[in-house]
Design goal:
Elements lengths: L3 H4 L2 H30 L1 H23 L3 H23 L16 H22 L9 H28 L8 H13 L16 H6 L14 H15 L1
Helix pairs in contact: 2-3, 2-5, 2-6, 3-4, 4-5, 5-6
Length: 237
Amino acid sequence: MITKAERRTDSRLAARCAAVASAGAAAIHFAVAPAHWEHWVPSGVFFVAIGLVQLIWVFLAWSRPTALVLAVGVVANAGAVALWVHSRVAGAVFGPGAGQPEAVDAAGICVLLLQSYVVMGATWAWVRRARAEQVSTFGRAVVLLGANAVVVAAVTAGLASGLYGHTPHHHGPAEAQDQHQATHDAPVQGHQHPSEPVGLPREEAMTGPATTPPPASPGLPMVESSLDIDDHHDHAH
């Protein structure tokens, strides 16, 4: 049975702050699980499972933070932090996107901070269990109020990013160049360069309209020309 004096120690206060942070991390994991489930079912199952573990740990750490409970909280959340960092640097170990680094979004950063908070709080509570010091009621209230404010802000930002945010699509170098070229070459409706007459090809607009030479006069037949010359010669005589 835990006495009132034990409930007012800094070790117990650190455990409860860690429990609050674990509840926030669990809320974000539950919120983003459906999107991961649609992408890949095992990924959605993983997010639901880690959310359940964090939620169960909340009740244990708040009511009875034994050494085993605190150790489980430190190991589980430290492993989740390491897995998040690895997925953003080297990509997932297996799955559809294995080997491809994932995008860093606000939801992931918020979960990372909350889980780091759990690790720090649980570690402090674990270390201070043997030499815990008393904390006044006012001091405990201020610390818990600040912890709740930080967690609420992190959960709000994480939920806004996870539920309503859009992950940017990054194009590769070749794809981006082709898209830029297509956009550059596409004609703009209603725009015509002032130096180019409407309806003329580019070559004709640059060199001017092509002039057609006048048709040559048909030449007279050679026989007729010879008769005319003889006729004129006879008249001269």
